[in-house]
Amino acid sequence: MFSRLTRSGRQLAAGLLLAGLAGCSGLKFIPDNARLYTGSTVTLKSNTGTPIPNEAVVQTQLEAVISPQPNASILGMRPKLYFWHMGVGKTKGLGHWLANKYGEEPVLFSEVDTARVAGLMLNRLNNDGFFKPEVRSNIKLEDRTAAVDYEARVNQVYRIKEIFFPERDTLLDRDIRATQAASLLKVGDPYNLQTFVNERVRIDNELKNRGYYYFAPDYLLFQVDSTLDNQLNVYLKVKGSIPAKAAQPYVLNRVVLNTDYTLEDTTTNKTPINYRGYRYYPDESMFKAKAIANATFLYPDSLYRRRRADQTLSRLMSLGTFRFVDQQFRPARNKPDSLQYGFLNAIVRMTQVPKKSLRAELQMNTSSLFVGPGVVVQYRNRSALRGAEQLLINAKASIETGQGDALSGVTSTQYSLDAQLLVPRLITPPFNFRLLNSDFQPRTFFEAGVKYVNRTTYFQQNVFNLGYGYTWKTKLTNEQRLQPIDLQYVSSTNEPVFERLLATKPFLRQSFRQQFILGSNYTYTYNQQVLEQRRNQIFFSGGVELSGNLAYLLKSLSGAPKETDAETGKSSYTLLNRPFSQYSKVNLEFRNYYRTSANPTSGNKLVGRLLVGAGLPYLNSSVLPYLKQFGIGGPNSVRAFAARGVGPGTYRTPEENADAGFYDQVGDIRLEGNLEYRQDLFPYVKGALFIDAGNIWLVNPDPARATFVSNGNTTEEGAVNGVPDGKNGQFQFNSFFKELAVGAGVGLRIDVQFFVIRLDAAVPIRYPYANEDIRARQNPDVPVPPGLENFYKKSPIGWDGLRLNIGIGYPF
Where would I find the Bacterial surface antigen (D15) domain in this sequence (predicted)? Predict the structure, then answer.
């Protein structure tokens, strides 16, 4: 259209465009006799011609002191000035709103104080060891704008030659000298003021752990001799005017433990219980003194250590029985200070939460297989045995309806009851492990439960479990879980439909057989998400699970005979006339959360996840128990596919076996990757873009799960003459990557901090099998072999296969 304008029209349009650009530059909004400040540059140069140590860091520090910051600009245009001008003189309306929301007041050159900025730069350079620097400013004036170029010239940096710690023969000086090996000051390092500040804090922390309760970092003084040739000697001294109480370490005289403190506290008027030197209030009706003393690391007649005080606070809070815990330290009145040591009384005050609670919660299962409501009732006793043991009893009931053609009309009803006892210590007789260097309370747990599942037209199943184990943390980011005993017993009663399915699927009959699972497991978790200020956070969880190995060894050593299952024909050792499973299983999960904004409260993140899992049945088992097999797909997995709707390998359920539902789409190996970008949209509303890929495979090939491809021929009745692809669901290194199911989509999250509702829409991009009918629709020139379109279920791709998911919480 522009090419059709007359010459005068083109000149007019060009003039209007230039006028618009000039307006966007913001210069016409600058008052008369004023200039717009457009920014500053910093040039760092060496007077000696030698390289400047940490030049990039020094340059950044100098740029950081420049003020004010100029108006934001894009290609010379400053639209924020235009929006600001729209609101000048207005108190309401669109112009006022745009000015407040998007506007920016002009930054004038008259606001720039070059002398102040140069002084700040000189201060930064001196702090970095560049003594006697020079900073010049060069003002560049234009018609309506002004800028400043700063040039900083430095001499050779001063480096530390020698470091001298206090030499007096006092207890304080001796303790300061004892910390020298971990000093932050190193011979040969450039002088840096911040390092000296950090060194004072380090020494103060060391002294606090040596009893110096009243010491402070300001009591330390650094004297620097810079008369040497670009070198300096550092002398660390204690100021001569510090209070006497700051110069001596303190011993804990009396330690009071008050487990029922309130603002109207009267418990200390009662006679205390004396336990291991502690004064324990009020009595042992709620907590045994031993339980609280085991979580306390302040010991009577021991040196005060800040590390032990912090550890005590953390351990007591992690018991889960107290709402608040605080500590007070006061000089001991009844025990005067000695020549070298002072004495403190410590009071640890704990405010309890209610001992017992009952909570009911309504839940909604939104998986792709079954959808329906459930209710959970939880009873909690926070000191069941008066030792801060937590007893949790959960009762759950749910009724869900099947989704999709295969599960249409199927109802899944579940009832479960389980109990868990959490003991706040490691029960490992005859040993007593307290993890003295950990801030977190280790636990021993005991658990037992029973679950009943009634899946109409398929089966009724009972699952019993019993176990015990340990959980502990050595750091805030590290957690470990060891469960030596994880026993399960599974029994099923099958309906005729399911029996017919099992008759055609030997592997399924094996995995659903009544059996014992004699398991043990260990899990290690590393989680940086607790470090909320970190821009990049890593999560890793790795676990290993073993079952049946000890039982098999004992049976084989005892010479016990194997028994043959009449249904499967498999021979195996039994326990109480029931077979037990034997396998090894590994689960690995890696996540990375990268916040794209420097703002720690921002929800704009790029999140990746990788899942790798493998289970190997052997000796007493040829198939993993169904409960232990992997499935893939669904709201928290590859979201473009139904839960357990992919794999194993290239396998796809034939149309004639649609009643198999998802039961045959499980495997021994899992590989899954997810990538998701999350963006803040509005308050409490976030958006997401994601892509998922993954599949499952078998360790051992299963002819019952072969994939058939057409040979182009049909029988007289019109059925497909198919031939198996030869993979039988087995994992193969040369083809597994081509067998990944891939999907992508968009999502919306309503995030109110304590509750997240997630809506995802995903479409399949790639199926794991050789899909002739898909290729035919993508390329009309490729004919569909006769009958093939009815042999398998249709596999719609793109928008034809759109799948909507509703979930609670984030998928990962």
Answer: 581-767
Task: Work out the angle between the directed axes of helices 7-25 and 79-86 (0-180°, nearest 10).
Answer: 80
Task: For domain 250-352, give the fold.
Answer: Ubiquitin-like (UB roll) (3.10.20)
Block residue for tokens 């102040």: 116
Contact 506, 499 (CB under 8 A): no
β-pair partners for 673: 610, 693
- For position 31, what pLDDT does the model report? 82
Distances in Å between the Cα of 493 and the Cα atoms of 324, 453, 460, 512 are 51, 10, 5, 10
pTM of the model: 0.82
Q: Which amino acid is at 457?
A: T
pLDDT tens, position by position, 213-226: 999 999 999 999 98
CATH for 466-809, among 2.40.160, 1.20.58, 2.70.98, 2.40.50? 2.40.160
Run of H or E residues at 549: helix 549-558
Nearest to 703 by CA among 683, 735, 726, 673: 726
Backbone φ and ψ of 187, nearest 5° = -60, 130
* CATH homologous superfamily, domain 19-154: membrane protein fhac (3.10.20.310)
Sequence letter at residue 637: S
CA distances from 444 to 212, 382, 433, 449, 471 (A): 36, 15, 12, 17, 7
Q: If you compute the radius of gyration of the chain from its CA atoms, what whole number of angstroms results?
A: 36
Tokens of 783: 């004919």
Write out pLDDT tens, residues 160-198. Answer: 999 999 999 899 999 999 999 999 999 999 999 999 999
d(CA 625, CA 492): 13
CA 744 to the chain's CA centroid: 23
One fold for 250-352 and 466-809:
no
**Angle at CA of residue 574, ends 570 and 575, nearest 5°:** 160
Dihedral through CA 294, CA 297, CA 299, CA 304, nearest 10?
Answer: 180
Return the SS3 of 348: strand
Report the amino acid identity of residue 579: P
Tokens of 740: 């990944």
- Strand (E) or helix (H) holding 99: helix 94-102
What CA–CA distance (Å, rounded) separates 492 from 452? 10
Q: What is the pLDDT of residues 652-689, one digit of tens each?
A: 876 655 555 568 889 999 999 999 999 998 888 999 99
